[in-house]
Amino acid sequence: MSGLNIKELAAKRSGARPPKNTGGGWSLAELLQKDIKLFSVKFTDKHKEAFYLELSTLLTSGLDIKSALELIEEEQVKAEHAALIRKIKEDLINGDALWEAMQKAKFFTPYEYFSVQIGEETGKIGIVLDQLYSYYNSKLKQRRQFIGALSYPIIILLTSVGAVTFMLLFIVPMFDGIFRRFGGELPYLTRIIISISGVIKSYFLIFTAIIAGSSFYLYKNRDTVWFRKYSVAVVKRIPVIGNIIYSIQLARFSSSMALLLGAKVPIIRSIDLIRQMVNFYPLEVTFTEIANGVMNGKSLHETMAQFPVYNRRMVSLVKVGEEVNKLDVFFDKMAKQFSSDVDHQTGLLNTFLEPAMIIFLGFVVGFILLAMYLPMFQMSTSIGG
Known about the structure:
mainly alpha; Receptor-associated Protein; 2 domains; 16 helices
């Protein structure tokens, strides 16, 4: 067992190169890939991805689950994670099934440990663990794509706001003082910019307090129904970004349905499990009615068709899947299609949003400079005349 390297096995299965560690320290690549947490240590989606990949790899390689968990425990860098794996292993030794030990650990969702329960009961635990790894791998990939697509435009936007605020607070008042000494009628654009500058300078602290207070209030109420409902409604109307968010959530829903239905979990039970882990409001509000509809004899596609969050193409594919009794296959295809849409839309976002933000910044700064230099142009023209 000492000759088995869990990182090399996991890297082979995920298609990546195994990490290199020379001299017992972290390499630069590993340090860059490590999560930096300033506060509490949690078992995040990234940790779950690695856990399911390593556990499925070791079980598929022929190890028993106790030995597999011992290896995973030894590989943990953080003591809290090693303690979590050790607790799961001890519960297994005391007679619990893996899914029961995961349930007691409190770090796993019902979707996860009930999926593992199904895998243990059907003898397909390796397949279920691999599917859970794929789910979290896809979730993290989509999150990184979305954050990567927005990070640069957000930096440009913040830079723009900072630059414009600086100009209105410091540069424009300097020009205003010069214009007052020369006297005369100022152009309309110049008067507008000077008025805006005066308002911002007079009420800057009030504006800052309002923005900070509003941000704090929204953050504190981020889990309330009204906030989630209206925030999603606002996001939906944002071009491209709204479509990306909806595609990501529908891809996760489809992937979860494919996993559970592929493990022969009944539709109603699958929906109930997914309901306990999905926190996207437009989907959440549909699950209870869908489950009730199916329980009352309606087909899945009929109940889904009642909600606009499921588009016609998705409903049509679910209908075909029900007719040929291969719902899991069709949900898997939809998950891949939605993921492909996310890739495409993220590419569009990178292509158009970055230059648009740069153009916007140039337009605003140029407008302010033009308004400040117009009086000088007029003065030079009058002197020359």
